[in-house]
Amino acid sequence: xxxxxxxxxxxxxxxxxxxxxxxxxxxxxxxxxxxxxxxxxxxxxxxxxxxxxxxxxxxxxxxxxxxxxxxxxxxxxxxxxxxxxxxxxxxxxxxxxxxxxxxxxxxxxxxxxxxxxxxxxxxxxxxxxxxxxxxxxxxxxxxxxxxxxxxxxxxxxxxxxxxxxxxxxxxxxxxxxxxxxxxxxxxxxxxxxxxxxxxxxxxxxxxxxxxxxxxxxxxxxxxxxxxxxxxxxxxxxxxxxxxxxxxxxxxxxxxxxxxxxxxxxxxxxxxxxxxxxxxxxxxxxxxxxxxxxxxxxxxxxxxxxxxxxxxxxxxxxxxxxxxxxxxxxxxxxxxxxxxxxxxxxxxxxxxxxxxxxxxxxxxxxxxxxxxxxxxxxxxxxxxxxxxxxxxxxxxxxxxxxxxxxxxxxxxxxxxxxxxxxxxxxxxxxxxxxxxxxxxxxxxxxxxxxxxxxxxxxxxxxxxxxxxxxxxxxxxxxxxxxxxxxxxxxxxxxxxxxxxxxxxxxx
Length: 506
Known about the structure:
CATH topology: Alkaline Phosphatase, subunit A
Strand content: 5-15%
CATH class: Alpha Beta
CATH architecture: 3-Layer(aba) Sandwich
């Protein structure tokens, strides 16, 4: 029987925020149950931030160094394929509920094409059934049809709060969203996905891309009050932002940017974290309805479910908000894969402690539906883990990611850090013991994660760690060389015609 795939992303979800992993506050019973019926990947990492570049790696299977869509708005070269295009070759009709944040190649568009004025384009090859983003017209039009008022501009619907004070102003709980939970953006998308699956006559591949728990941090009742701000986990940070800034020039620059610096108001920050947790629990509840529907209709037995995120969230750690830089909080994310095949029975309920990355998602989906994995993919299929087998001998022993802080529209970083536009980049390699951060033209960082799991002490200048700095710099260089874009390098034109011999992945 042909396999269906339900590919779910929840935006900006930190890895540890699953109760199946023992989180002391967040409750995610439906995702916990999914993990018990599938495989939980405990060391899974995004390959880039923010949304656009991370999702490009997720959808193309490529590291940023190869796809080059490095920031929100950097176009994705149209010559690259993706999982949707490849699935279509097997007769699937890939559909989208939500967004992919794909900045489209301007060379493929007319000068007056509206997609040239936003980075939130749809992934080429996917058919948007409900396209949601900064301007959520499908949702807000539906709200209006139900008699709800919608603010202007409609982007404010995501943060349209009820009247009254907020928690930091004396209210007992965070101020809720003005709309009931059953009609908010999360449940609207999940309902539309259920409608589609109910009517699907052919095997489907559906990408359900949920905004939450991404900001704005506003949750509907009762999720706004589900977690007490006074008792949420504290923040991993030094006493002051200035102490944090002393770690590295880039961090000092980032902390000087208002939109990335956490509030000094402890109550406000705790309110944000409580709502962040509440939004996660709402997503979990909505997915529980979707999973129940699959079981009730018999689709559970022929649908592979993949749940992950595009990146994490600093949430006050190191005095930062959002996603940026080199800290684990921005890159370590959840991954659960539930494969209905009998061949996957041996993997059910297992937790994988090997390093996996978002570039592995596309190869996993394509192998599941019997489609060849394109040469461009830097990732590897997760099937061995899903089937409960041992990791391949050549499986990676570190996680890798990149952060591109170039901004063609703003040269502030260049001026503050005395860099050129193309020097505003960093590469990270991280294993169980060390994390090494290499900048194009700034001092490196080395963290001894065994002694310093919260990444406060830069050991790169400590003479005792110099051999380790050299070792990890060499590892990082070798990794980049091994993953330089392959293109046609596996082909040679000979007197007998073209000869092709693809290399092993690692």
